[in-house]
Amino acid sequence: GAAMLRSLGSLLCLWALRLPPPPAGTGAAARGLDVGTVPGTGHRPRLPWGRARGAPLLGAPSSVSPPPPGLTSLLSSHSFSLTLIDALDTLLILGNVSEFQRVVSVLQEGVDFDIDVNASVFETNIRVVGGLLSAHLLSKKAGVEVEVGWPCSGPLLRMAEEAARKLLPAFQTPTGMPYGTVNLLHGVNPGETPVTCTAGIGTFIVEFATLSHLTGDPVFEDVARKALKALWKNRSDIGLVGNHIDVITAKWVAQDAGIGAGVDSYFEYLVKGAILLQDKELMSMFLEYNKAIKNYTKFDDWYLWVQMYKGTVSMPVFQSLEAYWPGLQSLIGDVQNAMRTFLNYYTVWKQFGGLPEFYNIPQGYTVDKREGYPLRPELIESAMYLYRATRDPTLLELGRDAVESIEKISKVDCGFATIKDLRDHRLDNRMESFFLAETVKYLYLLFDPDNFIHNDGSVFDVVITPYGECILNAGGYVFNTEAHPIDPAALHCCRKRREEQWEVEDLMREFYSLKKTKKFTLKRASDHGEGEGAKDPENASSEKGGEKRNSKKNSHSLLSCPSQSFNSKLAILGQVFLDNT
After folding, report:
1. Beta strands in 219-352 (DSSP E)
2. Which residues form the signal peptide (predicted)?
């Protein structure tokens, strides 16, 4: 474990994207690139500041085609970097607190979302909104000076809310399913295609529900739930969903059903939304899908693509994006099936030193023009989850193989390059931001059992909010699909009607005059509160000058949990176990 972490430290010392060429005579120090060391390595990584999904790496002018529409360099020409946000929480997980603090400061100085840019609604949500929410909730742990009222307020939270509001016009459709692209200044462009992939519709509940619970505005969670339910309503008679749908007419345009590209994170967010919100309905939806997926797409622990209405096989291929599935299975307690599928995927990795984008299962080889490996995280993500559940050393072997492959094949002077072809290990002149946000993070967490992310609840932080006492950083983090961790406890910190909020001056007076004899109490949260519609927690009590603030008799201890109606499952450390397991 320690040796592998040292190898990871070496790998991470070059985790940078190339910046625009500096003026003559300017060096790294002049560009502000000399940052804190990665703990235990002595290396000083360069700031991950580059274009949206990738940037030139190989020291020559880029010959790479531009990213697909909607995944463009979001705000890159406006002194803003998507990679900067995407990799921010990775810095803290690796222990680089000083650089986390500096990047937060940089972000506060120059982020502007009021620009004429067409942006992917999906990508902006998982990367920008998710990255900002995660960084906001981790700010205090990272030693950032937070404002009074945190985590219910703060500059990163306001940025996340502003970015999310820019996405809301996309949800204004007859079905509630969003357009795939929105202009950050003008909203949905006239003539915008109404065809959106399933994942682009069903991958909002984690970020948007978190935002609603922290800000008190239910609109975000409401639109995310409506989109999820619209997909559920339009599943086929045999219980499957297709790949692309018209968000105006609700007609399926691409009718291939599977667990991979175009669909994947919809299933992921049903499970993670259920865990985060303790929502029985979302879990029930996934379990019904899971039955249909097993019945129609699963063959010998592989998952194929089938026609959504007939269940007939349409593509007998494994896509690298599908490698998240064993990790998702582990979250619902289906560890045996998860391990069998994981081992299938691992054989592909060992065959090529990475996962090709498409792998023909009957032929046992790559698919033409899909031979590349852009350093995707999904198999490593599943290894991390399964290792937490099983401690099977095979999973550490995958981690070792991943580190060695990336080091030997992808390492270049300016970072780690996408592998253009796994057959001959030719490289492409780019590095994707998800390499920093996800691949590096999951690798590190696989080999670092003592990381705060793996907290079992034995330690925690108590913070005072305008709504009473709040427990944070106790563990059970829920990762969004871009590996940005969300603390589920934070969703219970800000659940009170805005009009009953303490005055800031009163809060500051109470906070700075706290004594050991003073106790704040919080009423048990309602089973399912949404934004301003949630039941009011108990007013915090104080004993200043013999005066109490609506003190109640039935306080509960610091470690007691909110009562839940989620009786058919039990959420423990981020996993959901069925009653019959």
Report:
1. 244-246, 252-254, 256-257, 298-299, 302-303, 305-307, 313-315, 317-319
2. 1-16
* 256 labelled catalytic: no
The 3-class SS string of 458-514 reads: CCCEEEEECCEEEEECCCCCEECCCCCEECHHHHHCCCCCHHHCCCHHHHHHHHHCC
Q: Which residue has the higher pLDDT, 3 or 243?
A: 243
Q: Tokens 């680089």 appear where?
A: 96
Q: Which alpha helices (H) appear in 151-279, and where do they start and end?
A: 155-167, 199-202, 205-215, 219-233, 264-277
Pairing mode, if any, of strands 298-299 and 302-303? antiparallel
Which residues are registered as beta bridge partners of 471? 462
Residue 123 appears among annotated catalytic residues: yes
H/E segment holding residue 359: strand 358-360
Element (H, E) at 569: strand 569-572
The span from the CA of 400 to the CA of 388, in Å, is: 16
Average pLDDT of the chain, as a whole number? 80
Distance CA 241, CA 308 (A): 6
Residue 429 lies in a domain: yes
Give the residue with greater pLDDT, 271 vs 40: 271
List the binding residues.
481
Beta-strand ranges (E) seen in 367-443 are 411-412, 415-416, 419-421, 426-427
For 203, residues 6+ apart whose C-beta sits below 8 A from its C-beta are 122, 125, 126, 265, 266, 268, 269, 481
d(CA 437, CA 377): 9
Q: What is the pLDDT of residues 334-346, one digit of tens each?
A: 999 999 999 999 9
Quickly list DSSP for 140-159: TTTT--PPTTTTS--HHHHH
pTM above 0.70, yes or no: yes
What would the two tokens of residue 472 be? 């944070």
The vertex-116 CA angle with 115 and 121, nearest 5°, equals 90
| Residue at 23 is within a domain | no
Residue 540 Cα to chain centre, angstroms = 33
Active-site residue identified among 89, 99, 371, 378: 378
Cβ(107)–Cβ(159) below 8 Å: yes
Q: Show the domain range for 343.
A: 319-449
CA distances to 426, 461, 492, 501, 536 from 504, rounded to whole Å, are 58, 22, 20, 9, 19
Residue 525: how many CB atoms within 10 A of its CB?
Answer: 18
With CA atoms as reference, report the closest residue to 75 among 34, 101, 122, 107.
107
Judge whether 264 counts as a catalytic residue.
Answer: yes
pLDDT of residue 495: 77
Residue 378 lies in a domain: yes
Considering its fold, how many domains does the chain have in total?
1
Measure CA of the first residue to CA of the last residue in the chain; give whole Å. Answer: 31
Binding residue positions for Ca(2+): 481
Amino acid identity, position 196: T
Contact 218, 280 (CB under 8 A): no
Choice among 221, 264, 334, 487 that is catalytic = 264
Number of residues that this document lists for the chain: 581
- How many CB atoms within 10 Å of residue 227? 27
* Confidence at residue 245, expressed as pLDDT on a 0 to 100 scale: 98
- Reply yes or no on whether 378 is catalytic: yes
Give me the residue label for tokens 């999951």: 442
From the candidates 99, 357, 371, 510, give the one annotated as an active-site residue. Answer: 357
One-letter amino acid at 85 equals I
**Cβ(53)–Cβ(432) below 8 Å:** yes
